[in-house]
Design a protein that fits this description.
mainly alpha, 0% strand, elongated
Length: 62
């Protein structure tokens, strides 16, 4: 659980620190992962496509 102290009544600063802590904890990325279910075969296919795309990008940079 993420907790932030409000110092000197500064809610804006506390809210900013809270957002940073939540982002670092990885909660938003976990929510995105669980939002949509992909079958294992589809997931594997998409990962393979990403790897091919990334390798092509890497080769074109060199």
């Amino acid at each position: 659980m993420t907790r932030v102290e409000v110092r000197n009544g500064n809610l804006d600063g506390a809210y900013k620190r809270f957002k940073v802590q939540v982002a670092k904890s990885g909660v938003p990325s976990e929510i995105k992962k669980h939002k949509h279910y992909d079958k294992p075969g589809v997931k594997k296919r998409n990962e393979k496509k990403e790897m091919i795309k990334n390798s092509r990008k890497k080769k074109s940079r060199d």
